[in-house]
Write a structure and sequence with these properties.
7 helices; 3 domains; Multidrug-efflux Transporter Regulator, Chain: A, Domain 2; 66% helix; mainly alpha
């Protein structure tokens, strides 16, 4: 046990003691104290000590930690945090891609184009098949062609709307 000559010294702790008491890493404690410019309350055996009343708010304040917009906004991060965040996002994208949870946009566009091509080919040949194989009359074929044109128009509009959303 340390020898305390002044009762006020009980509330002045070193970085090591703060880290041990709160189960934190000494480097984290030192970084938070330096970032917040906490004043040194004195020195004990050549090591700086800090007043508990000053370190409490620094170590345990929310400081935006609970707000996702603040936590994940690179413009509000220090350069080191920003670099670490971008590296973690790059690794997350690589992992999701390797697990097939994330598909490159070019693959999605290619698959969508193939799907639309197949659907439109079926729609284009359907009236001819109805006339040839089912014996439909010209009025019936014209009605089927109007329905097909409506479907094609809806597909086209939806694809153009999605393309416009991607451009924004």
């Amino acid at each position: 046990m340390t020898n305390i000559s002044n009762i006020g010294d009980v509330y002045h702790w070193s970085i090591a003691k703060i880290a041990e008491a709160f189960g934190m890493d000494r480097k984290s404690v030192r970084r938070r104290l330096l970032d917040a410019n906490v004043p040194v309350a004195g020195t004990v055996r050549g090591n700086p000590v800090y007043a508990l009343k000053d370190i409490g708010p620094v170590l345990f304040s929310d400081s935006g930690a609970g707000e996702p917009d603040v936590m994940h906004d690179p413009s509000r991060m220090s350069p080191k945090e920003r670099k670490d965040w971008y590296q973690s996002e790059t690794e997350r994208v690589k992992l999701e891609t390797s697990l097939k949870q994330l598909v490159p946009a070019s693959d999605v566009h290619r698959e969508m184009a193939l799907m639309v091509k197949v659907v439109t080919q079926v729609l284009d040949t359907w009236p001819d098949k109805l006339e040839r194989d089912r014996g439909w009359k010209p009025a019936q074929i014209a009605e089927a062609q109007r329905a097909i044109d409506d479907i094609r128009e809806a597909l086209s509009t939806e694809l153009h709307d999605r393309d416009d959303e991607e451009d924004d």
